[in-house]
Amino acid sequence: MATTQKHEKKPLHLAKLHVHRGDTVLVLTGKDRGKRGTVQRAMPRENKVIVEGVNIAKKHMKAGRGMAAGIIEKAMPLHASNVMVICTECGKPTRIGHEHVASDADEKERVRRVCKQCGQLIQEHTRD
Ligand SMILES: [Zn+2]
Known about the structure:
By secondary structure, the protein is an all-beta fold. The protein folds into 2 domains: about 10-85, SH3 type barrels, CATH 2.30.30.30; about 95-128, no CATH class. The protein has strands at about 25, 35-45, 50, 55-60, 70-75, 80, 85, 95, 95-100, 110-115, 120-125. The strands form 3 sheets. The chain has a 6-stranded antiparallel sheet with strand order 6-3-2-1-7-8, with no helix packed on it.
């Protein structure tokens, strides 16, 4: 049987998301449109994010070893383009700007994520 890959994964060096783990995001589409939540996991290679309490799938579990039967609620991945980061400074959903700054301290290039609404720095991290 031939196996076909459903989703083509991007090479890791091209895999960059505007959404990071720990960001608060607004959901733009789907059944949870308008909900806000914290990003539990970013999946840059799939362009997806898992947001706490959003896109919940209910799984019915049979009783197993040491486990009672029941319903497990699990947050399923959303496409990253369907969420917008909420700025920690101004509280608005915003596009994120990236500024590259060289640091004298350790000569590592840093990336600053800034809010396009208020211009505040959201996060700074070193480039990997
Ligand atoms: Zn802002």
